[in-house]
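Show me any protein, fold above all:
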Amino acid sequence: MATEPKKAYRHLGSENGQAFIGLVADFRAAFFAGDLPMGPLSATKVEGTFELDWFVSTGCTLKTVIAASGVGDEAWKDAHRIHLKAIVIEGEVFA
């Protein structure tokens, strides 16, 4: 949804859709710059990927998927790409 503005606007409305796209862009930039204030809430290894949940605010998390380039439990830290899987707002999943 973050890479498809029309879809984000349709689901969230224009103001919330723009805020969502900005949130995702800021998150990606901070992730690769190493500027996130804390680590993920959870990191689950699933075959060759990691599924990570990130705290955004009370009742809001981002679910991401990162291809694992190593074998350790923290191989996700060396990722070159991160994919947004969904955003969860008060239990409702937006994919």
